[in-house]
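User: Predict GntR family transcriptional regulator's structure from this.
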Amino acid sequence: MSEPGRVVPARRRGLADEVADRVRDAIFGGAYPPGAQLREVELSAALGVSRGPVREALLKLEREGLVRSEWHRGAIVTTLSDVDVAELDSLRSALEQLAVQLVVAKASEADLAVIDEVVERMGRARDEHEMVRCDIDFHDAVYAASGHRRLVEAWQAIRSQVYLFLLTRIGVNSEGYLASIPEEHRLLASALRERDGDKALELFATHRGQALDVLTGK
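Assistant:
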């Protein structure tokens, strides 16, 4: 136990963070789909580390909402319930409305150029998983362009779950996904560049709604 008034030296957690990054990337890349088990023994062998950092990494991913623990199965990749989908969509909507309003009001040319660059990369995406990465990068750029630190932090808190939301969306139905997503984002970026707040808000709402409709079967 530490002495009163004294700060306990922090433990170095670099290895656990690196393991978390590797496992997260594997999930986002499709190696571990929703519902897949994440076995400590297998992960420690594959990554060449002891089970301790793996266990810490899985706890970190659980805090992100990307992993869940079940007493009879251990750690598994989160499968989004209907409630999860609805809550993520409503929270994302609230955050995104503020982000769009701020970008329209005060984003710099450099900020908008970063958004445009992501849209250009979308046109070169080779598969659905690469497109999902670009989609998340696009929204990262929009939040960064808002210039609102706490809003960016709020987005980061749900970013992994939104990524999982989009992976679930392509798992349900990816027909036409590669063809339609770049154009959708070109329209979003164009509305931001035109500083047309009403149009941008409408287009972003439509964009979110299309993904939600796929997941809810509408």
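The CA atoms of residues 64 and 157 lie 7 Å apart.
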